[in-house]
Amino acid sequence: MQTLLYKELLRFWKVSVQTVLAPVLTSLLYLLVFAHVLEGRLDVFPGVGYTAFLIPGLVMMSVLQNAFANSSSSLIQSKVTGNLIFILLPPMAPWELFLAYVGAAMVRGLAVGAVLLAVTVWFADLHFAAPGWILIFAILGSAILGTIGLIGGIWAEKFDQIAAFQNFIVMPATFLSGVFYSIHGLPPFWQTVSHLNPFFYMVDGFRHGFFGVSDVALHTSLSVCLITLIVSATLAMRLLASGYRLRN
Amino acid sequence: MGASLPAPAALEVVSLVKRYGELNALDGVTLRVEQGEFFGLLGPNGAGKTTLISIIAGLTRASSGRATVMGHDVASDFRAARAALGVVPQELVFDPFFTVREVLRLQSGYFGLRRNDAWIDEILDGLGLTSKANVNMRALSGGMKRRVLVAQALVHRPPVIVLDEPTAGVDVELRQSLWEFVRRLNAQGHTIVLTTHYLEEAQGLCGRIAMLRSGRVIALEATAALIRRFAGGRLVLRLCGALPSALEPLRVSPTPAQVATPADPGQSGGPGALTVLRVEHYADVEAMLAALREAGCVIEEMELVHTDLEDVFLRLMAEDAQSDAGRVKLDLGRGLGVAAGAGKLA
Lengths: 248, 346
Prior knowledge:
heterodimer, A: mainly alpha, 10 helices, about 75% helix, about 0% strand, globular, B: alpha/beta, Alpha-Beta Plaits, four-stranded antiparallel beta sheet, 11 helices
């Protein structure tokens, strides 16, 4: 398992310009555009400028999207090129495959988030009210999306299937999770819809670690994240154990 | 003092079935490969060879039946079974992110081997890959990638090695060096299981052979015994004159190689007709030549070709196909009889 984890880390590190630097640049562009347009015009939390409000959301969005991308892309590439056989032939149990793929996804997600935070901390007056919660929600979020990426990689048999998974499920869910806005500014219907989106709780809990305030109670966000992780991990383990679309 | 337990089979499958919907890719396969054997698994495309290997390797789940590697069940004791097995896949697959040495180190790590560089160096040397050790897999030729596949199957020193058509699309020189390497492995005690469409390779390398057709084992015997079972050969002639009617039942189709061989221009007369006769017993050759002489045939060229594995393979496949056709007719007949009976009752 350690070797597979090492291989997955090495895989994304060898193309770190694409896997780490490019997502950081993309998020910086979002920051520059939205901050330029909305700074001074929108104070979501009292005493917190829009740029400062936006940065944690962008960091968490990067963590989630890159964690998903790492596990999903690794698995689908291996399936399409056929070199998945080198993972299936050795005596590795399903839980070992799970921990290696999700672990590497978490490292990539957290690495991108850390680099982005290090770069953007100079753009606004960020608070770190509860750093422990920042870390907890970052770890939970990367684990959940790493697991969902693993599920997507197992299910998909072609590149465009995983792209559809990403573009029609993951991207909308992250964009509509309160990254760019507080849900309290939304009409009641869309507030309800947001409450059904587990990504919202990851972003909200993460942002609580910076400002000490959040749209929903912290224990609610924590509970939803833990339940989402347990459900997705259980599904992923069942798929690995059954060999679904891996060992036909 | 009790008797020691018999050594487990290198590979054993019992009543193995694999269904894909209505299709039985494997239909109750049972065979056993002893430790140290060089075993051939032959069959036409779609016979079930790769499905059988995939089940043994844990890449596919059987619908029913049992498979073991060195006595370990491939499903319930998969760790021990997979640790004892090295598989060289048929397709040229590789990970484009890593060099040759990185690939072999990673493969070693998957089997729990951390400091394996000394053995990796030995494998690289044995397969002529030392100069390519730090080259990215993408940059290798097809032949080199094929060698790396063999190396990957050997990093954990498995007692059983399965090679799935390892010389498909490979040049003669690489084929010879690969077989030399594999023969050395077998001499060192590794069990080798080979699938190939090159029957002359199987005949030269394998001590025992199983032939699969439509998911069933239709032959399982020592190679020499299999060939002896169809003793005799082919009498290849260039004849001037009509073949006597008594010899017509022995006429068989020439192989493409025989058709392509041009007539010897040094012989007198014009080029005669290529005629190939089946020889059941070598003692019959004298009578056949006498019959040709009496009929006034002139033999311009003559060659006695011994039965080889390809002949045996083709005959067994044809016999099994005929049996299948007979079974289908019988089933249809029974079905029609049942339908007719039902019609009478209606």
